[in-house]
């Protein structure tokens, strides 16, 4: 899934975030980005469908006139 995908650097400065898939009951199959050293700090993980304000579950439609 990462082919051609830009993965941001973690805010801790340890490098590019890694792409993971949740295995919990409540979020099973949901993709997220996490810290490359798996540390628990502010912004150490973010849901892919919410990254950058994009919400794939509730698409935003803009009408351009």
TrEMBL record:
UniProt domain GRF-type: residue ranges: 10-51
InterPro entries with a match to the protein in the record: Znf_GRF
Record's keyword annotation contains Zinc-finger: yes
An annotated Gene Ontology molecular function: zinc ion binding
Domain of life: Eukaryota
Keywords, sorted A to Z: Metal-binding, Zinc, Zinc-finger
Protein name as it appears in the record: GRF-type domain-containing protein
Lineage start: Eukaryota, Viridiplantae, Streptophyta, Embryophyta, Tracheophyta
């Amino acid at each position: 899934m990462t082919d051609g995908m830009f993965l941001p650097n973690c805010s801790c400065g340890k490098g590019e975030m890694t792409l993971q898939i949740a295995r919990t009951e409540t979020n099973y199959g949901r993709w997220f980005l996490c810290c490359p050293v798996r540390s628990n700090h502010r912004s150490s993980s973010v849901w892919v469908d919410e990254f950058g304000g994009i919400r794939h579950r509730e698409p935003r439609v803009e009408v351009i006139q």
